[in-house]
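Collaborator request, handled under Task 6.
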Amino acid sequence: MASQADRIRQHVMERYVRPFLDANEVTLSIRAGDVVRSMGLVNRTPAVCSALEGRKFQQEAEHVGLEYLDRTGPARSTTTRFRYKRQGSPKTLIRTPTKKQLPDRPPLKAVATQRPKVPPARNAKLPAADLCLVSCVKTKQSHRAPARDLYISDWFAKVRKLVEAQGWPWFILSAKHGLVRPDKEIARYEKRLLTMRVAERRAWASDVMQALECHLGGVRTVVVFAGQPYREFLVPEMRERGVQVEVPMERLKFGEQLAWLNDRIKH
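Structure tokens returned to the collaborator:
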């Protein structure tokens, strides 16, 4: 049976970390009071803070590509915040105000402009592709189905519609099955790359690359619709083989991705 600390860590990963990774933000700030409220806990703020600052959660965060920055606020308070950044993000983009700076801190809108500029979804270009790779998603049918029909999230449905409208040959990147043909029938599963250790994700990418090898003959450009955990080891492998890899929605937040897809589908 999972301990309370395990439940807290799992909740934070599901509710805060995974959406953050999908949204391609620079920094993640987790407020202890928000976790307490979202879990419906009573008088458990110290337990939440302990779980979030513990080494086990730090390791889990590192495994999914986050780097711990700092803790701000009181040690065991609802206002205590734990901050992380994506591994590899320049620290010069991350500013921690001191107490003296707080009264003069610019408004939220001004702070937001200090982040790396994100191209508007409507202006992002649709590259040409010889092959397309699309990541699996959490939302699935409850019954066995062809892979293209198994995943039923709004994001996946829009990507599939765009890819098929373009006539691109494509495969699905499954956390459990690796490289999957869209017409291959598979059953529902719960495995996710975000919960895997770095070594496991590296092995997964190696297996996918091995399965992909026979499909790369004559392929110059591969377009990838997938989050960082799917791309981190796979994209470098493809580029080492001389394949040009395009990630058209790489710098778009989740809502912007949906807008970009809608715009491309309409046109």
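The cover message to the collaborator said: "The first strand starts at residue 27 and ends at 31. The chain is about 40% helix and 15% strand. Please let us know whether this matches your experimental observations."
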